[in-house]
């Protein structure tokens, strides 16, 4: 609330730099000079849009490489708190975090199961795309295959034992390869 007036017009990083200069305009130490140069570089990067800040961060906190002391904000005067200067930090919804965690776990489980299915079907002795039919491949749909060549419906073959679900997974895995 006291950050209005002069403090609101002059950025606090500029106040910090000016407070560390002597009457001659020179910096008190090399360390302060390096920090001031870093502030100048960061101001250019912000102007170019290369840097964005998290809540509670600004050019001065990045240049000094340390967070603000709890209960006060440097270069703003008496009575200015972190909350009044930076505002309250926006909280993420817990539901969104839980949703992201569940989604990651489901994706991991699905991927793991697909790898297991692929391994199981690759290890099996299934002839690819050799389903038995009572029609010739070139015959009309209405014509039956010649009865002199009966189709063997041996239930001992691996393909004959598969259910619809297995067929679906098998062809899905073939499609992925």
Question: Can you give a write-up of this model?
Answer:
Residues 132-147 have a biased composition (Basic and acidic residues). Residues 125-155 are annotated as: Disordered. The model is unreliable at 1-7 (pLDDT under 50). The relative contact order is 0.08. This protein has helices at 6-9, 12-19, 30-48, 59-64, 82-86, 94-123, 158-161, 164-176. By secondary structure, the chain is mainly alpha-helical. It has two domains: 6-86, no CATH class; 94-132 and 147-176, no CATH class. The chain is 50% helix and 0% strand. It contains eight helices and no strands.
Q: Kindly state the mean pLDDT as a whole number?
A: 69
Which percent range fits the helix content?
A: 40-55%
In total, how many beta strands? 0
Give the overall silhouette: elongated
- Into how many domains do the coordinates divide? 2
Characterize the biggest β-sheet: none
The N- and C-terminal alpha carbons lie at a distance of: 65 Å
Structural class: mainly alpha
Number of helices: 8
Rounded radius of gyration (Å): 36 Å
Strand content: under 5%
Order of helices and strands: HHHHHHHH
Oligomer state equals single chain
Instruction: Enumerate the spans where pLDDT stays under 50 for 5 or more consecutive residues.
Output: 1-7
Name some characteristics of this structure.
177 residues; mainly alpha; 2 domains; 8 helices
Describe the structure in brief.
Residues 132-147 have a biased composition (Basic and acidic residues). The protein is an all-alpha fold and 177 residues long.
List the helices and strands and how they pair.
Blueprint: H1 6-9, H2 12-19, H3 30-48, H4 59-64, H5 82-86, H6 94-123, H7 158-161, H8 164-176
């Amino acid at each position: 609330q006291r950050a209005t007036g002069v403090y609101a017009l002059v950025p606090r990083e500029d106040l910090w730099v000016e407070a560390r200069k002597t009457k001659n305009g020179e910096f008190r130490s090399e360390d302060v000079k390096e920090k001031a140069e870093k502030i100048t570089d960061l101001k250019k990067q912000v102007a170019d849009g290369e840097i964005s800040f998290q809540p509670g961060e600004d050019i001065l906190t990045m240049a000094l490489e340390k967070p603000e002391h709890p209960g006060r904000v440097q270069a703003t005067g008496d009575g200015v708190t972190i909350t009044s200067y930076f505002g309250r930090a926006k909280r993420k919804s817990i539901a969104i975090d839980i949703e992201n965690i569940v989604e990651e776990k489901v994706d991991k489980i699905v991927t793991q199961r697909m790898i297991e299915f692929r391994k199981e079907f690759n290890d099996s002795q299934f002839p690819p795309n050799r389903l038995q039919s009572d029609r010739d491949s070139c015959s009309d749909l209405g014509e039956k295959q010649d009865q002199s060549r009966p189709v063997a419906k041996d239930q001992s073959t691996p393909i004959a034992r598969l259910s619809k679900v297995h067929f679906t997974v098998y062809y899905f895995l073939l499609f992925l390869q």
